[in-house]
Every structure is written in structure tokens, then in C-alpha cells.
Write a structure and sequence with these properties.
Elements (H helix, E strand, L loop, with lengths): L7 H28 L4 H10 L17 H14 L1 H21 L2 H12 L4 E5 L15 E5 L2 E12 L4 E9 L9 E7 L5 E6 L10 E12 L10 H37 L1 E2 L2 E2 L4 H29 L5 H26 L10 H9 L8 H14 L2
Parallel strand pairs: 1-4
Antiparallel strand pairs: 2-3, 3-7, 4-5, 6-7, 8-9
Helix pairs in contact: 1-3, 3-4, 3-6, 4-5, 4-6, 6-7, 6-8, 6-9, 7-8, 8-9, 8-10
């Protein structure tokens, strides 16, 4: 079912994102990394271009494109600034999509237009101090009180947490039911009880802020429950299928940036009187990088195509995320090796690619978790 040729709308989205990335992110990507600064002006521009609502239907103010277009946009942004790429990815895949795909019409009408325009940035509050890979181990509590739920708890490593206007919050409404007692809510961060406790100082993706959040008697209308009580774990797992497509796309962008930098440098840098690109040791590194990047992109587009078709894509998105993340890490490592001592300095961007690549093997499900998902599917097929 997968067409390897991009359609006109997909090419247009890719080309627009590529121009924007080269014109706006080549310099700002360096600045946000150096200053640990959220690229607010860039995000606002992405909103005006329609990219913050790229797969949100036009009736809700979005661009009305598909997940393949979304993947292409994330990749292009990731080449120049992976912080910007993951800001858009978390906002779109993790915050906008559950409202679009699993919310009701009232919720869509209230939230999606402001999210598509980037008036409201979204975040996904699932991870807790004791519930990372074990997403079912939620300790945050939500207690029904009249026509509201009162939420108390702590969340960790929440991308976009400090800047968000909307948060998808997971909390336990019935602890006796285990993962079946978890529910999902749409919270507005301007309401009393939403607090940013700490912004993490990170090795990479420094322009994308990851925060610890505390909820202290955060009151959320019962009408903001996504689905029904107890649906939260299913909401989280379905959302992460799409989220992993976004992270895979980000990883492909980082890997591509590593290859492009290595191609330039290896043709300019001379050793023993000729460019190092003339040496087989370098050529083989470049060849391996090119093959693996292409394979990662194809896996990612397959998962995106399945999601657009409304077909199950859990295994395929896990495969894409696993392979793309490990490709990014390998490509960035090889890029530093090709650059030699210069690659270990901030004079060249490859050291940033190395720092940014590592997180793609960790967030939205570690590589180990992806392997568990994939192996479960493989074993079921036997």
C-alpha cells in the first residue's frame, strides 16, 4: 500500500520546511543550543506557516495534510535544529493528536484551532519519577468532585511543559484497577494548580525545555476527560504510536545532518596531499551512513502511511523509532570520527548532533522498550 513517490502536497510541505529550516534555523539552532533558549519566534512562524497544525483538518484551523507530510517536515527541521523539531513533534503527535483522534467534537472545537495556530503549545504529561518505561505505574491521582476532577501529582521530563497552554495529563482515577484505572484529561495550564517546578539542564536538545511539573489541586472539568474513566492507558499507547513516528523523523534529520556535514568536510579536508574522501576508510563510513538513513526514512514513512490509512502501526512505529534512533547515534558518532579532533570541538556542529542524537534512543520509549514491542509482535506471529 506504500507509494514511494511523494504527492504534490507532500513535496510542497517538505520543500517549504526545507527552505524555512535553511533560512531560519541554521543560525538559530546554534543560538538555542548555546543559550538553552526556547525558540518562541520560530514556533510562532511555524504556526503561521501551518506546520504546527500540519495534520489537523482545515475545519479546525489546520493544514489538513497527512502524517507522511508531517514526517517530512520534522525531518527537515531536524537537520538544522532538532530542538525545534521535537517541540513541533511533541505539540503535534502527543498533544494535538489525542484530542483530534480520541477526543470529542466539543474538545476539538475548543482546543485544536488555537493549537494549530501555535497560540497554545501542547505537552504530554505521562512520565513520572517512578513511572518512565513503566507507564502503567502512575501515582498522580484524579478525584471526581462534582462536575470536575481534582488532580494531584508530579510529572517528569515533560517536553514543552513550561511553554504549554494545553497539557494532556494522565492520572489514576481508580488505583485498584492497575493500568485500567488510569484516565486522560485535557488541562489548561493557566488554571491554578499547574506548576513548573524545574527545567532540566540537558546534554542536548537544549532549546526544547523538559520540565518537572507539579499538580496541586488542579481542577479540570469533567468534560475534559478523553474518552471515559479508565481509558487513559489506551490513550497513551495509541498516542505514542504516532509520537514515535515524530521522533523517528527527528532522528532521520539528525542523521542526515551528520552525513551532510561529513560529506562537506571529507571533501575539503586533506591528508597526505588529497581529500580524505578519497580514502576507502572514509568512503565506507559515508556509504553505511547513506544506506542506514535511507532505510530509517523508509521505515518511518511506512509507519506514517499506515497511520494515515487508519491501520495498526504499533510495531511499525516501534521499528522506525528504534532503527532511526540508533542510526542517528551511529551517524553522529561517525561524523565526529570523520572530523577528527575538530569534531570534538564546538567549531563544528557535529558535536551538537552527537548530543542531540542520544535522546532519540531514550524518550517516547527507550530502544529496549521498542525491542520488547517488536519481539512481542514477532512471537505472536509464530
Amino acid at each position: 500500500m506504500m507509494d514511494l513517490e511523494l504527492n504534490e502536497a507532500q513535496r510542497a510541505a517538505r520543500d517549504t520546511a526545507r527552505r524555512f529550516a535553511r533560512e531560519r534555523l541554521t543560525t538559530s539552532g546554534v543560538e538555542v543550543d548555546r543559550n538553552h533558549s526556547f525558540p518562541a519566534a520560530v514556533v510562532a512562524e511555524l504556526g503561521r506557516l501551518g506546520m504546527m497544525g500540519i495534520f489537523i483538518p482545515e475545519q479546525y484551523g489546520g493544514a489538513g495534510l497527512d502524517h507522511v507530510s508531517y514526517s517530512l517536515v520534522i525531518e527537515e527541521l531536524g537537520v538544522e535544529c532538532s530542538s525545534t523539531a521535537v517541540i513541533l513533534s511533541a505539540h503535534s503527535s502527543l498533544a494535538s493528536w489525542p484530542i483530534l483522534g480520541l477526543g470529542n467534537e466539543q474538545q476539538r472545537m475548543r482546543y485544536l484551532p488555537k493549537m494549530a495556530s501555535a497560540e497554545w503549545i501542547g505537552c504530554f504529561a505521562l512520565t513520572e519519577p517512578q513511572a518512565g518505561s513503566d507507564a502503567a505505574g502512575q501515582r498522580t491521582r484524579a478525584v471526581r468532585d462534582g462536575d470536575s476532577y481534582v488532580i494531584n501529582g508530579t510529572k517528569n521530563f515533560i517536553t514543552n511543559g513550561p511553554e504549554a497552554g494545553v497539557a494532556i495529563v494522565f492520572a489514576n482515577t481508580d488505583p485498584s484497577q492497575g493500568h485500567r484505572g488510569i484516565s486522560a484529561f485535557i488541562a489548561e495550564t493557566s488554571d491554578p494548580g499547574y506548576q513548573v517546578v524545574r527545567i532540566e539542564e540537558k546534554m542536548g536538545i537544549r532549546g526544547s525545555h523538559s520540565a518537572q511539573l507539579a499538580f496541586s489541586d488542579l481542577r479540570v472539568p469533567a468534560s475534559n476527560l478523553i474518552g471515559k474513566e479508565g481509558d487513559g492507558f489506551k490513550v497513551a499507547m495509541k498516542t505514542l504510536d504516532g509520537g514515535r513516528i515524530g521522533i523517528a523523523s527527528q532522528a532521520v534529520g539528525i542523521a542526515r545532518a551528520s552525513l551532510e556535514a561529513s560529506l562537506r568536510y571529507s571533501q575539503e579536508r586533506k591528508s597526505f596531499g588529497k581529500p580524505i574522501a578519497n580514502y576507502q576508510a572514509i568512503q565506507w563510513k559515508l556509504a553505511d551512513m547513506a544506506v542506514e538513513i535511507d532505510a530509517a526514512r523508509l521505515l518511518t514513512h511506512r509507519a506514517a502511511t499506515l497511520k494515515d490509512a487508519g491501520q495498526p502501526c504499533t510495531t511499525q512505529s516501534a521499528m522506525a523509532k528504534l532503527f532511526a534512533a540508533e542510526t542517528a547515534m551511529k551517524a553522529a558518532t561517525e561524523a565526529i570520527q570523520i572530523h577528527g579532533g575538530y569534531g570534538y570541538t564546538k567549531e563544528f556542529k557535529v558535536e551538537r548532533y552527537f548530543r542531540d542524537a542520544k535522546i532519540t534512543e531514550i524518550y517516547e520509549g527507550t530502544s529496549e522498550i521498542q525491542r520488547l514491542i517488536i519481539s512481542s509482535h514477532v512471537l505472536e506471529d509464530r
